[in-house]
Amino acid sequence: MSDMEKAPDTGGIAVDRLRSIIERIERLEEERKALANDIKDIYTEAKSAGFDVPVIRRIIQVRKKEPAEVEEQETLFDIYRRALGM
Question: What is the mean pLDDT of residues 49-73?
Fold first, then answer.
């Protein structure tokens, strides 16, 4: 290790703290990648079981929102559809 890496504070930067933060972010990025792969596998499973994946994605998106927001969007969706003669 160079003297700069060993120094607890180099140029106003706490090297150990910076290294710790970067390593934690890197670990979380790896976990996120693994989780994304797990989610992809579940969608593949759903599709092979005959479920419509875009509908599942939409349901998940709606469940993340507040009920009032969902109701407002559905109302607007219906108004727009009627306006277009659908």
Answer: 96
